Amino acid sequence: MRAAWVLLAALAALSAYYVYLPLPGTMSDRWKLMLLDATFRAVQQTCHLIHYLRLSHHLIVINYLICTFDKLKSVSSEDINITDAVFDGVEVRVFEPPVKRDERLKRSVVYIHGGGWALASARTSLYNNLCRIMAESLNAVVVSVEYRRVPEVCFPEQFHDALRATKHFLQPDILAEYSVDPSRIAISGDSAGGNLAAAVCQQLSKDEHLTIRPKLQALIYPVLQAFDFNTPSYQQNMNMPVLPRFVMINYWIDYFNGNYDLAHSLLINNHTALDVGQALSFRGRLNWTSLLPSSFKKNYKPVIQTTGKAEIIEEIPALLDVRAVPLLAENETLQLQPKTYILTCENDVLRDDGVMYAKRLENAGVEVTLDHFEDCFHGCMIFTIWPTDFSAGVQTRNSYIKWLDENL
Asked: Where does the protein end up (predicted)?
């Protein structure tokens, strides 16, 4: 009996050691976040072992587990009509509020979900719930894009899917079918979906044949660059829950169908060293020492290698492709962007991506709202359903929807 108690105490100590992380005291729901992160890490480690044993791709296994867990949840949608459709070969889920008396046209949001271009789905309860609440709160038609994911396809197919679906929806006859006001359409997304939303918005702004364009873009903690993995937020939050730096780098490698052996070189910015000629013309567009306020720069120093590995860019040219890294777009493209909302979280490696994009857009003459949350973390906005319900999720979601309501 005594041995059993000793074993139990040892297991409890090991569990506490695995779960505990030293998080900032200002962060909300700290212990709940530790438990969520411990679950993520356990799932990822198990799935990577399955991948290592060549039983299946780890991302396929993770998505299978997400879908299995998701079946345990049910989200009510009594007041919203939810239908699945295909827009120019791309699956979408459409959320339509009921028609009100004397109402002619509704506003609309094209939403692109996150998940590292690889995980989650427009059909999971987390995004189903978010889009349903958006449709109800805004009395708007919400189109959630179900782009194909890694490893089924890699860049640029996710971008092409999001672009095709959006352009299809922007056709006058399609908007009329859904009773949408052509002058009141936003494009939005979170994390990797924010990346796709920004890239699609840039592409639409340059399409001379397009007659209807988005009025707004709203980007939620977007990932916008793979040029510098040592911005202050990457250094400050390198081990932060949900999205540590090495996980983000691996998402990029998966997106580009690259080799994991390059991860360390990317981490120390060997791919954008001073002797890598392909990167020289982009350096001025991502100089965080001038784009970030001092409150974000703190005492962090730039990591710029004198000599690096030009072969990385030769092997993965998409690292400098603006369709994948919208923050590197030229000023002439940024000047064409619509009124913009960018939500960032202090405890997020991607914080500076959003802040730098906001500054570049402002410098280009675009009206920008930067909505920064000191106590929140990456991905928090979709975590509003038990058991992954966070006050940070409700706080950020309400602020995001409020901005859309006031500006769309």
From this structure: Cell membrane; Microsome
- 246 domain residue, yes or no: yes
pLDDT tens, position by position, 59-80: 888 888 877 777 555 555 668 9
Question: Measured between alpha carbons, how far is 46 from 52 in angstroms, rounded to an integer?
Answer: 10
Length of the chain: 408
Amino acid identity of residue 408, one-letter, is L
Q: What integer pLDDT is reported at residue 21 of this predicted model?
A: 67
pTM: 0.94
Tokens (6 digits) for 167: 């352009």
Residue 66 structure tokens: 């997400």
CATH for 188: 3.40.50.1820
pLDDT at residue 6, as a whole number: 45
Identify whether 29 is a catalytic site residue.
Answer: no
Q: What are phi and psi of 342, to 5 degrees?
A: -130, 120
Q: Name the residue range of residue 310's domain.
A: 79-407
In a domain, 16, yes or no: no
Is 145 within a domain?
yes
Asked whether the beta carbons of 74 and 131 are under 8 A apart, the reply is no
Dihedral over alpha carbons 212, 325, 237, 228 (to 10 degrees)? -150
**Higher per-residue pLDDT: 201 or 7:** 201
**Residue 52 confidence (pLDDT) above 50:** yes
Tokens of 400: 């995001």
Q: How many domains does the chain have?
A: 1
SS3 category, 144:
strand
Among the listed residues 161, 254, 348, 375, the single catalytic one is: 348
191: annotated active-site residue: yes
Question: Torsion-angle region of residue 5: left (phi > 0), alpha (psi -120 to 50) or beta?
Answer: alpha
Over residues 367-384, mean pLDDT: 94
Q: Is 6 a member of any domain?
A: no
- The catalytic residue among 108, 125, 144, 191 is 191
Q: How many CB atoms lie within 10 A of CB 141?
A: 25
